[in-house]
Structures are given as structure tokens and as C-alpha cells.
Amino acid sequence: MRVWRTGSVGRSREAAIANVLTSMNSAALACAHDFVARFFASQSCVVEASFGTQMEEPMAFSPLRGSDRCPADDSLKKYEQSVKLSGVKRDIKELCEAVPQLVSVFKIKDKIGEGTFSSVYLATAQLQEGHEEKIALKHLIPTSHPVRIAAELQCLTVAGGQDNVMGVKYCFRKDDHVVIAMPYLEHESFLDILNSLSFQEVREYMFNLFIALKRIHQFGIVHRDVKPSNFLYNRRLKKYALVDFGLAQGTRDTKIELLKFVQSEAQQEDCSRNKYHGVIGHKGPLNRLAPKNVDRQCTTKTSVKRSYENTQIHIKQGKDGKLIKQSKTVDIISRKLATKTTAISTKAVNSVMRETARSCPAVLTCDCYGTDRVCSVCLSRRQQVAPRAGTPGFRAPEVLTKCPDQTTAIDMWSAGVIFLSLLSGRYPFYKASDDLTALAQIMTIRGSRETVQAARASGKSILCSKDVPAQDLRALCERLRGLDSTAPKSAIGPPGSVSHDPAASESTDQKASHGQASQAQYSEDSLYKRDSDGWRSHLRDCTASSEGWDSVPDEAYDLLDKLLDLNPASRITAEAALLHPLFKDMDS
Ligand code: ADP
Ligand code: MG
Ligand code: ZN
Q1: Is the CB of 480 under 6 A from ligand 1?
Q2: Could you tell me the CA-to-CA distances from 183 to 43, 45, 170, 180 in Å, in that order?
Q3: Going by C-beta distance under 8 Å and a sequence separation of 6 or more, which residues neighbour residue 9?
Q4: How far is the centre of ligand 1, averaged over its atoms, from the C-alpha of 240 (Å)?
Q5: How confident is the model at residue 379, as a pLDDT?
Q6: Ligand 2: distance of its center to the CA of 243 in Å?
Q7: Do 552 and 480 touch, CB atoms closer than 8 A?
Q8: Predicted model pTM
Q9: Of residues 46 and 113, more confidently modeled
């Protein structure tokens, strides 16, 4: 599949308005700085040693973990390890220098996670009783917006600490460095365990995810980035924790005060549409810049805002028979006018965008409709206001079509995508580099007509030249899992053909956007091809019957169907999901 257009066209904004917003923003920054300072001041006094269960297992992400390579690989491996180790050591040293108070409390052992916006370390704290407590230290990049940091902390402190939602123990701040100390939960890599989980474990996993989502949704928190790496799972201890509120937003009636602040800024922008890009968020599009080079102003962007009257997303069949998508921003009024315009190649969009927007006369009409070009008229469309932060493969259709009204239902969709992976044994299930690819992938599972119809209900129009039918979820999952007796089974495919880099596919939008855009991982074609490879089918053959995979109840697919409801208004809630017949024998 090839992306022809993402439709992320912008519009120039008057300098005067930009100035007003700049000053508003610095006021907000000052206020937030103040808040963060006060927040931390109070936090540091309230250090209650309510330490959780001690984890005895070895580190999940130890860079020194042994492997059984052949001797020829050994020296290279050792070299890589030493480079990595020295890198980790250097990072730990730098962290200790930046936030020296950490040293008196913790022994920092290892780096266990690194993204563009945070690094997570494993540390131990010496308790008075004599035993050591494992702690996860999340060091946020210094360019994160203070309100964003404070909101992330408030989610953890107010909603966290119970019902499978991660809590917070301490916070440390020195200048613009913020470190959040959380109980450490040893956890599995989703990809590593996916194909060895029993159906019962899958049921428990989903049940516990809904407990966490019910909890945060009760507080009016929309997580926005629900995916396996943000839902920690300790298989042995059957412990679960939803982490990472770095993209969270508040519902209208959120109980998280700072999310209101985040939201109110978004609403402000609603009023001044097209005059300012973005709301507070440490993972916004402009953060694609190397963090060190980004000033605070730039790190406040989470979403691209638009307000054209109608969005048309066009999916057609290309020369090779594959689906090709185009999105058109179609202003109904200008479509009625008939004046010739200059066509601009997609590649040139960014460079000419600003200029075109400024110079495009109001009476022109689009002449790029149904083509793979973007005309100057389309480039000058006003923009729609809608947050789109998150990870492409887990984004709900209403996020992909940029509906401004987004609710906690978007997290339920993401939970549905996780469930789809668990039932099909495929991860990542959707691997899309952009929103339109993601939308096309959803269509191949849920049906193009159904997707178009659901979008229409929220005022969005999607054009699709090829009709793809909705798939039966049981048949799909069983086929992918290799349980379908009619599915061809052959030799196991090479590991490279099936193992993706989960970090890449799972990276939160802006993290994934670094470097060149990758092609969509999943398409109808690749799906069937991988299926006929029969990869890992031997594993399933051995374990299927004993693990309950031969008798997956209809309730599982019924729940999956209700999670992957294209219409957010009727999509099942976390509370309702916990009461679903699939979980009839389970207590929350
Ligand atoms: P980011 O915003 O960079 O994605 P996260 O909060 O998701 O940060 O943390 C990144 C990774 O660090 C997680 O995927 C997980 O592997 C690890 N991690 C985070 N918090 C904890 C914790 N409390 N216990 C154990 N590991 C954690
Ligand atoms: Mg994360
Ligand atoms: Zn056009």
C-alpha cells in the first residue's frame, strides 16, 4: 500500500495572532512551572513508604542478558554489549549529575526503556527494614511541557496506585529535569509471550486491562496510548499495570484538574481555529525535532488542527491492484466554483504549503480530486480541530478521520486491537506508518462500507474505489492462528519474515515518525502470504488443544466485535466489558 496523501495541510497564520498566543503561552508556562515546583515541594514531604510487592525476578531488559550465539558472533556481541553498557553507564552518570538527590535515595542499576520523550531506569531503594525495593525511575526529557509533566503526575497520583493503574512514589526535580519514581513491575515482552499464552491467560489479561481502563475512565482520563508496552504484564505473578500518561487528555468532566488545563487550552484553540497549531503535549508533531534543539514553545504541540468543512478520504485501486489511498480536504463551497488551478506534486506540499495558502485566491476550485496530486486550492483549506496523538496501529477510526469529539471510547478501540493480536497471535496486528494506511487496514477487517458509514455519522466522508467486505472475526483469527483446518500449512517461514521491531511498530506517533516513512506492514496481501507461510504453526499445533485455543467461545469474538465497533457512541465501555459474558466467572 502506498500513501499518496495524508491531508495534513496547513495554513499560514497572522503574525499578530501568533504573538498573542506566544505571550499567552509563556504565561501558561510560567504558571505551570510554578505549579510543578509547588507540586514537587509538597510531594517531597509526603513520602509514604507504602512500597508494593517485592519483585525477585531478574531484570527484563538487562543489556547483559546472555545469549547462545556461536563463537564467531561472540566478539561482535561482546563489543556491542560493552558499547551499550558504556552508553547505559554514561546515561546513569548524567542522570545522577542532573538530579543529584537521586543518589542519596537510589542505586540506579540499569536502563530499561528509552523513548524520545523519556528514559526509564531500574533502581533500588534501601528500606529501613533492610530489604531492597525495586523502583522504576522515569526521567522525562527536559523539554517536556511543565503542564504536561504535571498532568502525567496527577493522573498517576490521583487515579493510580490501584486497579491495575501504576502509581507514583516520589518525584524529583532539579531545574528542568523531572524524575518520576514508581514501583517497579517486572514485565514480559508482549511479542515474546504472545504465542505461548493460553486462552485463559488472554481472558485474564483483557479482564485486567478493562479494570484499569474502567478506573481511569471514571476519573475522566482518556489515556490515548493504550498498547502492550504501556500495559505491563507480569505473567508469573499475574500482575498488571497501565503506565504512561504522557498523552492523556481529560473528558469534559474530568476529575484530573490539570487535564482540564490541557483541555482548556485545546478549547481555546477551538475558538481561534486556524490561528494556532497544537495543544500542550510532550509528544506533538513538532517534537520530531531532536529534543535538544526544541525550545519549550515547540514542545507544546500534540495535534494538528483543522477546520475545513468536510474531509474526503479517497481509497482507490492502483496499477498493481493494491489499494491506494488519498485524502482530500474538500471545501464544499469551492468545489462548486469552476476555475482552473495549478497542480502541485505531493512531495512539494510542505515547501509550498505556506506560500500557496497565502496566495491562493478564494474563487478557485479543486482540480486534483481523484488524482494523486494535491492542488493549491486543497492546500489552502482551513484545518480541522482534532487531537491525533497516539500510535497509528492502535488509533480508533474517529481519531484517524480527525473527529473533534473524542472520548474514552478511543481507549476501548485500542484495547480491541490488543485483543485482536491476542486472539490471532499476530503482533503488531496493524502496522501503519500513517493515518490513511491505518484506516485502510481497518477497512480490510471491518469492511469499507461499514467504515465509510460510521465516518459519515460523524460528518466525515471517505471515498473508496474498491469495496472490501467485513471479515468474520472468528474465521480471521483462527486462520491467522493456524487453527483453521482449511488454511494451508507449510514449513515455518524465516523468523525475519514475521518478527517486526515492536518498538518501531508500537512507537507513539512522533517517535515512529523519525526518519523515513516505512511502508505499511499489514495489507490484505501480506496477511494472506504470511498466513500461508504457516509460521509458528508448529507451536500452535502442539499447544492449541491444551491451551484452550480449540474451543474459544463465541463470547470472545462478540466482545472483540463490540470493542472494534466503528461507531464510538455504541462501542462497549470498560465498565460494560467487565460485565460481558466472556468474564462471567471472574470477579473484579
Ligand atoms: P514513554 O513515555 O517513554 O513510552 P513509559 O512510561 O511508557 O514511557 O515507559 C517506557 C517503558 O519503561 C515501558 O514500556 C516499560 O517497559 C518501562 N516501565 C515504565 N514504567 C515502569 C514500571 N513502573 N515498572 C517497570 N517498567 C516500567
Ligand atoms: Mg510508553
Ligand atoms: Zn484539490
Answers
A1: no
A2: 16, 18, 10, 10
A3: 329, 349, 353, 374, 378, 379, 380, 381, 383
A4: 13
A5: 79
A6: 7
A7: no
A8: 0.70
A9: 113
